[in-house]
Amino acid sequence: MGRAFPFTSERIAELVEEERLKHSSQTLEMLLSIEGRDYVNNHGKNVKLSNLVGKTVGLYFSAQPCPPCVKFTAKLASVYANLREKNENFEVVFVSMDKNIDDYLQCFDSMPWLALPYDEEFSRALARYFDVQEIPTLVIIGPDGKTVTKEGRNLINLHSELAFPFTELQLRLLQEKQNEEAKAYPSSFDHVGHHHVLNLVSEKSGGGPYMCCECNEQGLGWAYQCLGCGYEIHLKCGREGEEESAGKK
Ligand SMILES: [Zn+2]
Ligand SMILES: [Zn+2]
């Protein structure tokens, strides 16, 4: 019988409060250590969890075979390499959702970062703690050990390494930068890849999260849109028709 039985409103409120306290006192070491195991794996070597304290750490819930995971692992690896090159205090720890250790090893082999040792039960408990609904998921833990965001995957897809350190402030700065850049684009134009005129939209004027029909990557906020067709592309993915651009020269 679960601890919540019977599901009185008092008991539920109690559990919610327990959960809140657990998250507010959260530290990286508390999250990742178990029964004296205080390290993660670096392709054969152990790395003490204490070495990760003070860094921004992405907990990467992933597995194979999973095509979206393969795609995102490649994207994350390039962002990881760029951030490390710039000496940013960023680390990633693979939390395996694999069903067996062979899949885990093969999956980890494709990753340039660290991993929790294979421990299905522990990984699933961690996924439950963060309410991970799908893989891949990238949960970002800040230098103080608190959760910054569970939207690491979307943020990396949208902004690549510019998303770092994934804070509200950084996202607001990116937003302002995009608003500034959008001023240089015409309010409508003939895109070579679509048979209707496209309109410049922002999040406030009918835009929103979308998949770019040109490059198949995620977009958010500013876009060129044909509302009738549900056709949307990144500003940078718009290409003017041959005649038009030739005429302007
Ligand atoms: Zn695009
Ligand atoms: Zn159209």
TrEMBL record:
Repeat in keyword set: yes
Reactions the enzyme catalyzes: [protein]-dithiol + NAD(+) = [protein]-disulfide + NADH + H(+); [protein]-dithiol + NADP(+) = [protein]-disulfide + NADPH + H(+)
EC number, UniProt record: 1.8.1.8
Domain spans labelled Thioredoxin: 19-179
GO molecular function annotation: protein-disulfide reductase [NAD(P)H] activity
InterPro entries assigned to the protein according to its UniProt record, in alphabetical order: C1-like_sf, Nucleoredoxin-like, Thioredoxin-like_fold, Thioredoxin-like_sf, Thioredoxin_domain
Keywords from the UniProt entry: NAD, Oxidoreductase, Repeat
Database matches in Pfam families: Thioredoxin_8
Protein known as: protein-disulfide reductase
